[in-house]
Amino acid sequence: MSAPETSQPSEPLEAGPAVEDDAGEASPAQDEAPAVPRLPPDLETLIREVFTLFELKGGDKKGEVEEKDVPTLIRGLGLNPTEAQLEELLAEMRTPVADAPKSKGPPTVTFEKLEYAVRRAVSQRPAEFRRTPKETLLKALRAVDTGHKGCFEAEELKNLVMSSSTHPFSEEEAAELLQAATDSKTGKVYIDDVVELLGRDRSLGLSKMLEPASA
Fold it and tell me: Region (Disordered) spans which residues (predicted)?
């Protein structure tokens, strides 16, 4: 006679965040999201200061900013996401339509939602959201300015970025950079102008030249 079959123990389920049922009791609901670290102290202080500059005063709007001001606010933190990344952050901050209070005013964002979205972006994708320091960009460009001229011919810079040994530019990326950085009067690309430009707009991508090559 064969031995009776024994059932194999099932895989333990991960505990999700607790939600309250109708009786007010907490029960697990869905897989728990990874914890998001706090912001560095300097950025934590800055986000509160910048938020205060845009905060809607009076009535029930205290503690909120208009959604249209969020891109400027985020860039005021020293972050420079692309337009697509900004829209992603805004989508995360928006209150679902079903839960949003009826209001005739412009859409707003609370400090809590803004702070959480920034924390998640900075902790999970720091290279995409933090600017490369201007001093680092300046040092890197001066290192390849072998003639110590303080500028490049447009074609010279194009060849330089497209032949980078770590992160070469595509033709389209190089054209975008040159269109934004070339001096219209001289046709040259001045290092100081490039550094200032890229300090404001990471989307041009020159800072990727400074990243170490992948292992």
Answer: 1-42
